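Supplementary Note 2. Why include the ligand at all?

Several targets in our set were suspected to adopt different conformations when bound, so apo predictions alone were not considered sufficient. For every target with a known small-molecule partner we therefore ran a joint prediction. The input for guanosine-5'-monophosphate is given below.
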Amino acid sequence: MKLLEDRIRKDGRILPGNILKVDQFVNHQVDPELMIEMGKDFAEHFKGQGITKVVTLEVSGISMALTTALALGVPMVFVKKISSKTLSNDTYHSKVFSYTKKIEYDIRVDKRFITPEDKVLIIDDFLANGQALHGLSDLCRQGGAEIAGFGIAIEKVFQGGGKEFREQGYDVYSLAMIDHFTEDGVVFSHEVA
Ligand code: 5GP
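The joint prediction is reproduced in token form.
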């Protein structure tokens, strides 16, 4: 998606450890118009498949999952990272190892929101090694839901998560695919011969 690639070039910052900081438009300050366009793009790709729900992980996936759900006309569910007093005890839970924080954390979702009647589109802001997607898929499987595919804003192709899920037959649709970082910036997959 050219709009997202241009924005990454303009406002993204590369940090040590192959981390791309996008806090100007996704991870802290959020650009609503960009989120609307990303939601439309995800919805266009996954439309007509009988998707009943868009599922993401709080916090950074929420803005784009919401616009995708709006475009598909279905609810959005965000999986919680911390247990809150208002969260019911009747939850599915799993564990995710955080790429950026290097810690393992619990994720939870109320059992009412993922059911065997659901066909789920999983959305996240980044795909690196695939740990977050494994955790989200695990919750969907516990709920008996079918996984329609994965919509990712920024995939760091060199970290292998996307390859693993595609080899398992999943539709992984990424709006910006980064082949590698250089000292000068980002090289997208379609720019590499
Ligand atoms: P994975 O679980 O695929 O290894 O990493 C994906 C998760 O880690 C995303 O949900 C995202 O929060 C975080 N993440 C991975 N790489 C990056 C990155 O380069 N920049 C930012 N801001 N977050 C990242």
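The first helix runs from residue 2 to 11. The two ends are 19 Å apart (CA to CA). Comparable summaries for the other entries are listed in the accompanying table.
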